[in-house]
Amino acid sequence: MTFGTSQPYSMGRCQSSRGLSLPPNSVDRVRLLLLTFFAAPALIAQPAPASAPQTTTQGHATPVPIAVAARRTGPVLLDAKLDEAAWNSASRITEFTQQDPEEGKPGSQRTEVRFLFDNEALYVGAKMYDTTGARGVTTRLVRRDASFDSDFFQIVIDSYHDHLSRAFFEVNPAGSKSDAIGIGTSCCDYSWDPVWEAATSIDTDGWTAEIRIPYSQLRFSRDSAQTWGLQIRRIIKRRDEQQDWSFWRKNEAGGPSQFGHLEGLRISSQPAGLELMPYVSAKSASFASEVGSPFDTRARPEPSAGLDLRYRVTSNLTLNATINPDFGQVEVDPAVLNLSAFETFFPEKRPFFVEGSQVFNFGSFSCHFCSNVEGMSALYSRRVGRAPTGAGLAFGNFDYADVPEATTILGAAKLTGRTKKGFTIGFMDAVTNRAHARVQDVGSPAGEQLVEPLSNFFVGRVKKDFNNGNLIVGGVVSGVQRDLDGAFAPRLATHAEMYGNDMQWTSKDKKYSFAASAALTNVFGDPRAIASRQRSSARYFQRPDRGAGSGGFLSNRYDTTVATLRGLGAYARFAKETGDWWWEGAVNTRTPGYETNDFAFQRNADYTWYNANLVRYFSKPGPWYQTIYSVVGAQQHHNYSGDRTGTQLHAYAGVNTKNFWNFNQFIIHRPRAVDDKLLRGGPAVIQPANTFVNFDMSTNSRHVVRADGGVSYYRDELGGSNPSVNVSATYRPVSNLSITSGPSWSVSRSMRQFVTPVVDPTATNFYGNRYVLGSLDQRLLGLDTRVSWTFSPRMTLELYAQPFF
After folding, report:
1. Which helix (H) or strand (E) holds 113?
2. 126, 157 Cβ separation under 8 angstroms
3. In Å, how far are 86, 209, 261, 554 from 117, measured between CA atoms?
4. What are phi and psi for residue 316, nearest 5 degrees?
């Protein structure tokens, strides 16, 4: 299931319809990221001179504040003291408004911010006064981009000034840094690690931050006179207070469209830069080898070397390239037991593919609460460099085989950025090499077997915004081309591609929004490869009760003679997302022949899905709560044969209390429907009515120990059930050490586990087959443990362990 807000911007970070997608009837913790804070008496720190406030309405529906940067006239040493004469020429920004805990009131503690610039960089000086002195400052030393759980200072820059883009720079009193970037409507990329400097210090009247951001790390127009969008934010952790320079209420649409302006910048020359990042690494893995195998590779070191390159083509376009990319710092995937007919989705973690990936987003869906639905992904980058698909050719034809774990990426490059005329662009191309397995029969010499062909993956994405970002129109082309020989012809497609368009409209007052996308897919190859896709779990064209289907341009029938598979996907959503009452309605469809698994990720085709929700958002604190977010709604879906394959009624409530505990609970009820996937190519059968309930809670994160827990329960009318419980605790004995651990326990019983079909001519209702189903009992125990020990803002030791039974 998926749920979350569709607010285009949230405290501290970009957020766009964040949610959690789970397989049907699965159990996991689901939380609403509503950030609220505890109220305390407002106290004003020692006064300081400030310039008169300025506002403008240029490009905005309502007035926004203006900050003016001064040219640096003397040296500035980043020592967090702000005692250089150059800072005296800069105007001071002191007007900040609380979004939490006392929405609309002035900040409880005084904050002063000043801006300087020279020909190479922007300088930010910030003084966070605190009337309680150093003891009132909360800080933690954490690795880069980790959650601070402390005071921090944030600058958000829309350097294109397109009212869409944003670059985040955050620093806390311990000097820990975090950064992220969003280009156009694509947000946010937390793998972005620009080169910038920050110095911090804690003193008797609060804390200070001094920041230098080189222009080479930002993307902006080529004009010498610059106006940038700007937001300044301060978090006071002990009060859970959020101060904003450019203020909007929690039930209003915010983000870059409501940012203030940073004016006065004069950049005489356009920055350019080349970054080279070579690496060398060694890997050793130990597996139990088959008795008698000549390929015993236990603990054999595997050296590797490569090069990453980043080149700033212009002030707004960046080229990234890699040769044998470095994936040495990638965290292992969690353990999963998958007994379904569908592939498990794992998120991308490799740095080259993660950085800038938001530019290529296409067809993503948004909902306040929904389940069993997926977007139209244009690229699943884990397909690039994946495990060889021809392992069966080695293991099936030889006594012993040693198959590589992954395919070698010969090289990859991508160009991303945004032009002055409002085009957001992204192009990527990656080439993977042929992969060979070492093979040998008993009594024969060793040889090699090709297990993956030479392949080329590509994706191109272009978007254009109009009317200050209120209308965005885009397109995408994505796919893969392979050099196949006879052995791979029945296994892989020769080429597969997607062509798509999308648009997003928002009313001028940001009250209403409409989004739509559509894509055409095409797969070409040997008829045997196409037939295997027709029989896949996404569509099951061979179902005997499905009918003959129809021919034509879009594929809709089982045909073992054709060499193409074509399909269409589409999505549309209309919503209101401001005020106390929100609502949404959406439709999502895939024709039976829609197929992207050669280069993207797809579980299902052959469906049309409808969803509607009504939301009540209590943004103003009540007698016992800070905020309440509640949803009631329903969804339904059908296949293209006219069967109703699902109906769902649901309700959700998320509460943040006065002591900053969070409680989330929801219930889903599904009446009887038709299941066209259970018999894995057999006829559709009845899906029993079922109910799923879930409850989660978390304690105040400000304390030394934070606890999280959840319970859930599923039951259907045939006796299937799935109770589960999970508990975890985070212990922070000192500011630079965090230990998180906790068990999870799940007991499930399914009364409809597919086993096998058996031919029986007397079973006329099932087209000459009996389908054997069994009951399946599972008991899963996990104990996830994470340890993070930070030595400095640039060095951290981390451990992740997952005993899984």
Report:
1. strand 111-117
2. no
3. 10, 16, 15, 58
4. -130, 5
552: left (phi over 0), alpha (psi -120 to 50) or beta: left
For residue 153 the two structure tokens come to 């200072």
Q: What's the pLDDT tens digit per position in 432-456?
A: 999 999 998 888 898 999 999 999 9
- 192 neighbors 230 (Cβ within 8 angstroms): no
Classify the C-alpha dihedral 328-385-217-788 as positive or negative.
negative
How many other β-carbons are positioned within 10 Å of the β-carbon of residue 250?
Answer: 19
pLDDT reported for residue 660 = 84
User: Is the pLDDT reported for residue 43 higher than 50?
Assistant: no
| pLDDT for 32 beyond 60 | no
H/E segment holding residue 471 = strand 471-483
The more confident residue out of 595 and 17 is 595
By C-alpha distance, which of 688, 684, 682 is closest to 772?
682
Local structure of 302: helix, strand or coil:
strand
> Checking DSSP bridges between strand 64-68 and strand 260-266, what pairing results, if any?
parallel
User: Which letter does DSSP use for residue 762 in this model?
Assistant: T
Taking 3-state DSSP, the helix, strand and coil percentages for the chain, each rounded to the nearest 5, stand at 5, 45, 45
Q: Is-contact 661 37, C-beta < 8 A?
A: no
- CA 611-616-622 angle, to 5 degrees, is 155
Q: Take residue 81 and report the two structure tokens written for it.
A: 């003291």
At 61, the pLDDT band (50, 70, 90 cuts) reads low
Q: How large is the C-alpha radius of gyration of the chain?
A: 28
Strand 197-203 and strand 206-214: the pairing is antiparallel
